[in-house]
Request: fold
Amino acid sequence: RRGPRLTMANLLGFDYGEKTIGIAVGNSNTGQAHPLTSVRVIRGRVDWQAIGSLVGEWEPVALVVGLPLKMDGGDNPVTPKARKFGKRLNGRYNLPVHMVDERLTPRDARTQLYNAGVAEKRHKPVLDKLAAQSILQTYLSEQAESGIESD
Reply:
């Protein structure tokens, strides 16, 4: 199910993973993020065609990528790959890319599913896009708190 474009203040959020990338859409006018979809990463290859289609459809003004860090703030094995993914997004789509600390995001997404009564075996298909939603929502909330208003 595809929704209509919200406004020209759309952003796409990404939860980078080595097997799947969760994607969410958000809007700086409403301050809300919504889970969208996830794309597969096969043998290290990102489905750029799928991401390009979403960029074309939603016409985001910026992209937000979750930065996986250790609890002490240091890099973990996926951190450099997430940074590289962010640089590749910027290079392909010539849009600003904002990296957001995602240390607590996967736990938040799992908690959301448990609270909604979703059986654990059904978590994986929606976990990545919920994590992307959480990353993007964090970014939108931080922007609102810093006084950057869109209206």
